[in-house]
Write a structure and sequence with these properties.
Oligomer: single chain
Keywords: Membrane, Transmembrane, Transmembrane helix
Shape: elongated
Subcellular location: Membrane
Membrane topology: Multi-pass membrane protein
Largest sheet: 2 strands, antiparallel
Distance between the termini: 12 Å
Main location: membrane
Protein name: DUF1772-domain-containing protein
Helix content: 55-70%
Number of domains: 1
Structural class: mainly alpha
């Protein structure tokens, strides 16, 4: 009977938990941010401006409470996993990259989205007392400045933002699977006449 040599380093339970939590939180963040642009916004665009602004504000307020802490958790975990890797390894580089790219949603939001966020928040304030079904409330608004047009621009920027934690998830996932050649499954190949039993 010939055995196949099996080589793998089994991470500790703590490392496995960190890997799962880091990947899950970064992937959840990417999906949550992205789903707003490709699921929620199309529905919001069907609403009259006052309702659209009110609903966007609720989504925005919930997102700013959840997204930054989740990005920080993912970043801290990926930083910890990078610390556990030798500095010359690809795992160290990939975890470090993930630890940087996931929380970059925060500067992305500040530098690329704050202008449109402020405009949409002002829309929510100015339309707060309008009837939620008033379809003519923005009839005199300049082109490009209606709640619908602003939200459409916002959705594109938001979709771009979702790629940051997605890229971090992929980098960290690659760091995890890159370490393993074959898991210790006790694989054995039988040869000769006795291979069938």
């Amino acid at each position: 009977m010939n055995s196949i040599p099996v080589s793998a380093t089994r991470p500790t339970t703590g490392i496995r938990i960190a890997q799962v939590v880091g990947l899950t939180s970064a992937a959840y963040l990417a999906g949550a941010i992205g789903s707003i642009s490709w699921q929620s916004v199309p529905a919001l665009l069907d609403a009259p401006a006052p309702l659209l602004a009110k609903q966007w504000k609720k989504i925005f307020d919930q997102g700013k409470v959840v997204a930054p802490p989740m990005a920080a958790i993912s970043s801290a975990i990926f930083g910890y996993l990078a610390y556990r890797e030798p500095t010359a390894s690809s795992g160290f580089k990939l975890y470090t990259f993930a630890a940087i790219v996931v929380p970059s949603i925060i500067p992305y939001t500040i530098f690329l989205m704050s202008g449109i966020n402020n405009k949409l928040q002002e829309k929510a304030r100015s339309l707060a007392n309008a009837s939620l079904t008033d379809t003519a409330v923005e009839s005199g608004v300049a082109q490009g400045e209606t709640a619908h047009e602003l939200l459409d621009k916002w959705a594109t920027l938001n979709l771009g933002r979702s790629f940051l934690p997605l890229i971090g998830t992929l980098a960290a996932g690659w760091a995890i699977v890159d370490k393993f050649e074959v898991l210790g499954l006790g694989a054995v190949l039988k040869t000769g006449a006795n291979r069938m039993g």
